[in-house]
Amino acid sequence: MKRLSLKSSFSVLNGVSGFAAMLAFAVVPGTAAAQVPPPPQATLVECAQGNQTQTYAPAINLFPRMVDVTGTGRVSSCVDSTDPGLASGIFTITGTSAVSCLLASAPTQNVITWNDGTQSTIEFINGVDVRPVGASMVTLLGRVSSGRYQNALAIKTVEVSSIPGVTQCLLSGVRSSSAEISLALLRLF
Question: Considering the domain boundaries, does residue 2 fall inside one?
């Protein structure tokens, strides 16, 4: 199984943290910049390996229509600095959205059951259903809405070289996709 890097995802995160620091300074007028501590940025858990499979009903094609997204996945090689026993998790994927070949990104809910039995529900803003032209990796952002790591920022990196492309979408429609992933959950505040 291929290991995926989260370095590019963390550069996006650093921009978010910088924005949060500017916001904190703007909210407290008269505070000197040296007195504003940088916002805490803690990696709660990082899973370097994983995979997921999604199915679409009806198949994604040229014209926009409501599509149900369902799927399953697994993350492994997980590291939680406060819980050395956490190592992996399995998850389900659900979502419904209007998608087409040209607009093939549906928000999804991922419910992860960790190897110790605890759960995290993640609401991702978008998903990857059809490979974007010229892309090999896509980063998805979301939030842990409930359960373990609640309110953490979720960063899922998806290796999209094996995901169906626009050609398949136009010919037969995309009925399913599989991808290797990595996942990180971070506390920003």
Answer: no
- Relative to beta strand 119-124, strand 65-79 is unpaired
**DSSP three-state, residue 85:** coil
DSSP character string of 133-178: TT-SEEEEEEEEEEETTTT-EEEEEEE-TTS--HHHHHHT-EEEEE
What's the rounded Cα separation, in Å, for the pair 138 and 180? 11
Distance from C-alpha of 84 to C-alpha of 180, rounded to nearest angstrom: 24
> Tokens 């032209």, residue?
133
Round to whole Å and give the CA distance between 66 and 25: 43
Number of domain units in the chain: 1
**What residue numbers bound the domain in which 76 lies?**
7-187
Q: Is residue 32 part of a domain?
A: yes
Establish if 1 belongs to a structural domain. Answer: no
Residue 57 covered by a domain:
yes
Q: Which residues, 6 or more positions from 148, have their beta carbon under 8 angstroms from its beta carbon?
A: 114, 118, 119, 120
pLDDT tens per residue, range 86-132: 999 999 999 999 888 877 678 999 999 999 999 999 999 877 766 67
